[in-house]
Structure formats: structure tokens, C-alpha cells
Amino acid sequence: MIDTHCHLTYEPLLGRVEDVVAQAKRAGVDRMISVGTSPDDARLALGLTRRFDNIWSTVGVHPHYSDKWLDRGAVDAVIDELAAEPRVVALGEMGLDRHYPDPPMEVQCRALSWQLEAAHRHAQLPIIIHNREATDETLAILRDSGLAPSRFVFHCFTGRLDELEAILAFGAMVSFTGITTFPSATYIADAAARMPLDRIMIETDSPYLTPEPHRKVRPNEPKYVADVAAFIARRRDMAPADFVATVDANADRFFRLQSR
Ligand SMILES: [Zn+2]
Fold first, then answer.
1. Residue 81: its pLDDT value, please?
2. For residue 160, how far is its CA from the centre of ligand 1 (angstroms)?
3. DSSP string, 112-142
4. Distance, C-alpha 4 to centroid of its chain
5. Fewest CB atoms within 10 Å of the CB: 41, 91, 176, 253?
6. What is the pLDDT of residues 109-124, one digit of tens each?
7. Ligand 1 center to residue 44 CA distance, Å?
């Protein structure tokens, strides 16, 4: 199965990435997308795709790092360079995060807008959206961008049901992490249970957010995406294998991994 969103370049995973990939394979997780969160990180992730034929990568500026990348020319240059690489399968992650006071929202919005303009130049690539406590603003900016809603995935969904409905009405995909399995987050499990089957994907967002029943294990790893799948399948009364086949087909279609 596919882990559609992990950060293999982050310290707790990068130093032992061979082992992480081998353990994932043993757990049936044979493909993964290592998502870039800054131009430097995206280069590192691209480097991993050259070492492993079952890793793909992305290029983008995460809102948390938007204040470190204030030079638009530099950001655009890296995006244009990496977006041309066959193993780079998406732009992002990019978006808005209101959970912490910094960086200021205007800086986050500007970084998002630059990247959405770049997305017009790279029309072949889907776009990974990070949204935390900023659904309305994010959707407004995405609508204004004029980009096709079907190009977007809202990763690591943690919102309310009305936010889910708004994202679905917009037309984006929605992806769920280990948070969905936390007993304190039944509203997210409810959201995963009512997702249309052709719009849902799953991910680990490792090294963070280890799913139950391994929640105390740190760091999280791609191998645990199977636990996210099993949990949501149970909530939907589906056989886990059927659910995995469904989300994998969605990921294949969305990221076009087969042809890259
Ligand atoms: Zn992420």
C-alpha cells in the first residue's frame, strides 16, 4: 500500500531510512511520498527518490517555514527546477496554519499565493494543502487561484464536519492520518467514515502522529499507515483489503505514481 504523505527527510527517519523503507515493505507499504516542506527539504527528498525506486517527492514551502523563504525569486526558481523532475509528483505542502501565532498570517498567505501562481505553470502536478484552523481562508484563496479543485488534497484532516462538507463542496480530495485513530478525536473518525470513497486518501505524516495501537511509539513511520487504513475500514464496515485497494487507487490516480 501507499503512504501518501510522510517526511523521510526529518531527523528521526533520515538517519535510518534504509531500515524505515525495509520495515515499511515488510508491513506491505511498498510506496511512499516524502513531502517537501521547504526548498532545502524538497531537494533532500528528491535525493531519496534517486536512492529508492519506491519513494517519490514533492516541492513546496510549508506555512511554518514561510517566514524563512521571503525571496520569491528563489522560491520560484526551486519550484520550477524541481517540478520538472519526473519523480516530483506534487507541489506542496503549502497552506495556512492558525494553530501558532507565527509566522504572521500575511506572510503565510503570501507564500501560499506565490505557490498557487507557480501551480499555474506546472499544470501537470497536484497540490498538497496543509490547513490547520484556517479552512475558510484557505478555501477562499484556493477559489481565487482559479486552479481546478480536483488538483488539491487537504492533508491531515482535523476539522469539524461542516469544514469537511465545505472542502468536499469545493471539490478537493481529503486525506487522513493517525489522528483519526485517537480516542479523543472521534469527530475526525466520523469525518473519515462519511467521506465519499473516491475522494479519500490516507497517510502517516510521519515522523509525527503515530496511530493507535502504537501511539506511544516514536517516531511514527510509513509502516503504520496500515493501522490508519484498518481503523477507517472498521469504522466504514469495509474489509481492510477493499478499503486499501480503494485508497491506493485514489492515490495512484491523483499522484499518477505509475507513470513516474
Ligand atoms: Zn506533512
1. 98
2. 20
3. HHHHHHHHHH-TTS-EEEEEES-HHHHHHHH
4. 6
5. 253
6. 999 999 999 999 999 9
7. 15
How far away, in angstroms, is 7 Cα from ligand 1 center? Answer: 7
Q: Indicate whether this model's pTM tops 0.90.
A: yes
Q: 194 CA to middle of ligand 1, Å? A: 23
DSSP annotation of 82 reads H
In this structure, the number of other CB atoms found within 10 A of the CB of residue 51 comes to 10
Q: Rg for the chain (alpha carbons), in Å?
A: 17
Ligand 1 centroid–CA 93 distance in Å is 7
Q: Cα(217) to centroid of ligand 1, in Å?
A: 18
- The C-alpha cell of 108 is what? 503565510
Cell, residue 64? 511554518
Residue 259 has pLDDT above 90, yes or no: no
Task: Please report the domains of the chain, with CATH numbers, ordered by start residue.
Answer: 2-255 (3.20.20.140)
Is 258's pLDDT higher than 90?
A: no
The enclosing H or E element of 152 equals strand 152-155
| 240 Cα: distance to centroid of ligand 1 (angstroms) | 24
